[in-house]
Amino acid sequence: QVQVVESGGGLVQVGGSLRLSCAFSGSIFRINDMGWYRQAPGKQRELVATETGGGTNYADSVKGRFTISIDNAKNTVSLQMNSLQLDDTAVYYCCADLVRYGRTYTDRYWGQGTQVTVSS
Fold it and tell me: What is the predicted pLDDT for the residue at 54?
């Protein structure tokens, strides 16, 4: 089995910063890609940032403000969010595409989600 634990959400004022973290543990052979998505009320889940074998990808709306970082040794992914705006309010989900021991295919695992609220 794979366990996913997210942390770091909360309430912050416009212009403030937050750091989200996510740890994957359990029967993990290899993690291929990791990333962050978010879902605002009434909207579809959207990509925020991903780290893949091909490099790092950010949504245009967060470029220059958010930074994704990976610790391969600890199977963790973090998201540093600076200069937060009202439109950043959403539930943030981490994810990883990984291969479990004894399997040959990749599965995507999601975190439970953490609320980020930006207030004026």
Answer: 81
